[in-house]
Amino acid sequence: EDSVRVYDGEVAYLYCPLFSHPTLYSYNQTQNSSLSLLWYRQTRTHELEQPINLKLHTLYKDREYLWIQPATAQDARLYICMLR
Q1: pLDDT (tens digit, 9 = 90+) per residue, 46-68?
Q2: Which CATH number goes with the domain that contains 52?
Q3: Parent domain of 25
Q4: What is the reported pTM?
Q5: What is the Cα–Cα distance from 33 to 36, expressed in whole angstroms?
Q6: Mean pLDDT for the chain?
Q7: In a domain, 48, yes or no
Q8: Which stretches make up the Ig-like domain (predicted)?
Q9: Angle at 6 between CA 45 and CA 15, to 5 degrees
């Protein structure tokens, strides 16, 4: 399990580990299929949220990356990417 340390107010980016082995998945292949890459994060009660709302001005997805800009203490959670 990898962790990313970011200071308050900095930009954070998370890479989806599903694409770390190109022989399993490639981002372009998933875009050409019916699969979508969704990001989830754990709530304070350790349940998974619905897919992250990427309409929030602090979170956005760029290919297989999730960007948090600017990061705050409330962003300190477990993030999970899934193909669905």
Answers
A1: 888 888 988 888 999 999 999 99
A2: 2.60.40.10
A3: 12-83
A4: 0.82
A5: 8
A6: 87
A7: yes
A8: 1-84
A9: 80
For the beta carbon of residue 71, count every other beta carbon within 10 angstroms. Answer: 19
Tell me the C-alpha distance between 74 and 43, whole Å. Answer: 10
At 28, list the tokens. Answer: 């372009």
pLDDT digits (tens, 9 = 90+) for 19-51: 877 667 778 788 778 888 999 998 888 888 888
Q: Which two tokens stand for residue 20?
A: 């770390």
| C-alpha dist (Å) from residue 61 to 14, 15, 28, 44, 64 | 10, 10, 15, 22, 7
- Residue type at 19 in one-letter notation: F
Q: Report yes or no on 17 lying in a domain.
A: yes
Token pair in block for residue 35: 């699969």
As a whole number of angstroms, the distance between CA 53 and CA 60 comes to: 9
